[in-house]
Amino acid sequence: MKGLLGIIVALIAVLIVLALLKVALKLIVIGLVVVGALALYGMVRDKIGGGGAR
Known about the structure:
Blueprint lengths: L1 H52 L1
């Protein structure tokens, strides 16, 4: 009985870790996309606004 409980606890722990990793990965991907979009936006704005106006 005790061994079964240990296995169940281990499985739950693994599931929690996997869920946290998935969330962390999602946050990292979102962060990278936001940073990439901001960098692109900055470059495009510099090309359009900086090059043409001045």
